[in-house]
Amino acid sequence: MTKIVVVTSGKGGVGKTTTSASFATGLAMRGLKTCVIDFDVGLRNLDLIMGVERRVVYDLINVVNDEIKLTQALIKDKQLDKLYILAASQTRDKDALKQEGVERVLEELKAMEFDYIVCDSPAGIETGALMAMHYADEALVVTNPEVSSVRDSDRILGMLSSKTKRAIEGGEPIKEHLLITRYNPNRVEGGQMLSLDDIHDILRTPLIGVIPESESVLQASNQGTPAIHLAETDVAEAYKDVVARFLGEDKPMRFTEAVKPSWFKRVFGGK
Amino acid sequence: MGFLNFFLGEKKSSASVAKERLQLILAHERNGRSASPDYLPQLQRELVAVISKYVAINPDDIKVHMERQGDLEVLEVKIELPEPGGR
Fold first, then answer.
1. Hey, are the CB atoms on A154 and B26 less than 8 Å from each other?
2. To which H or E segment does residue B46 belong?
3. Residue-wise pLDDT tens digits, A226-241
4. What is the mean pLDDT of residues A156-160?
């Protein structure tokens, strides 16, 4: 049974594409057949982060418009034979994404027996973002510990529970997971950054992981290697934990050490 | 650190200011999203039609209102019946 997972956030630059790349790679590392789709039509970047930019010939829009076969557009990862990438179009605009076409592509992927389809949503709340979330079974909502990102995530959570197929048809709601990225425990301890508990209190969505702020994310994107491949880095370990928790394993949170709620409460007084 | 905290103690950290601001604005925005779903006017018209079968009421005597209390959504329907002498 194929599961569709959308990686979304509302706000741009919080780490959706970084997360999509590492999450999809992590699933494939577990031996699960995974396809990651870039829904950011006109501003594609997943190909760069995955390091396949020179192998893109056809894209999502070509398939949606029935110009080519899906298999012609799927790019197979060089390292993991269970991982496929479907790039966004660089030349068309977002309105080229038609709902029937997207549904057909997803159905074809299901027929190819993919375990997971990861949809990398564009920023914003327009067509591209709505298409990326429409058919989702689960959602990773990527949030930075910063006011505008938290507010936009709240908006996106509202849309997941009202504008998606599951919401409209009244089925079981989309399973939502909160992923906090660019987290800096030292700044949290100094009272300069919203803590995990603060963000969780506000958004009331189960936390699936915390990715620490780290230089290795830039290093990874410079090389076109998903961050989860960078051996012995906190970011790679944190993403592996996210994948493990997503698959139902019990993993305590890591790289959040400097957060001590009791100390926090003493200084800022309650709540 | 303790010494510093003594002087900064009165002042709120910027993170707690951020949290308070977010809680306020989001409570407001969530209300805006769910305060009046699209179906409320339709529901009101149909309620008037049903109740009018049994009691003569004025359409304005029915008030339908949606409210959010924490995690609960409360649908409030207020129906004012005409005074018995009126009939």
1. yes
2. helix B40-52
3. 999 999 999 999 999 9
4. 95
Residue B41: phi and psi, rounded to 5, are: -60, -40
Structure tokens at A257: 């050490």
Cβ of residue B53 closer than 8 Å to a chain A Cβ: no
Min Cα–Cα distance to chain A from B27, Å: 9
CA distance B15 to chain A (A): 5
Which residue in the set A151, A190, A191 is minimally distant from B16, CB to CB?
Answer: A191
Alpha carbon distances (Å) from B10 to A46, A204, B3, B4: 47, 29, 13, 11
**pTM, to two decimals:** 0.80
The chain A residue lying nearest B14, using CA atoms, is A192
Residue B21 pLDDT greater than 90, yes or no: yes
pLDDT band at A54 (very low <50, low <70, confident <90, very high): very high
CA A193 to chain B, closest CA, distance in angstroms equals 5
Residue A202: which of B13, B23, B71 has the nearest Cβ? B23
Give the integer Cα–Cα distance in Å for A167 and A92: 29
- Dump pLDDT digits (tens) for A76-89: 999 999 999 999 99
* 8 A C-beta contact, residue A41 and residue A97: yes
* B29–A202 CB contact, under 8 Å: no
* Residue whose pair of structure tokens reads 């990225």 in the numeric block: A181
Query: What confidence score (pLDDT) does residue B87 get?
Result: 46
A31: left (phi over 0), alpha (psi -120 to 50) or beta: left
Structure tokens at A80: 């993991």
Which of A151, A155, A198 is nearest residue B15 as measured by Cβ atoms?
A198
Work out the pLDDT band at A46, boundaries 50, 70, 90: very high
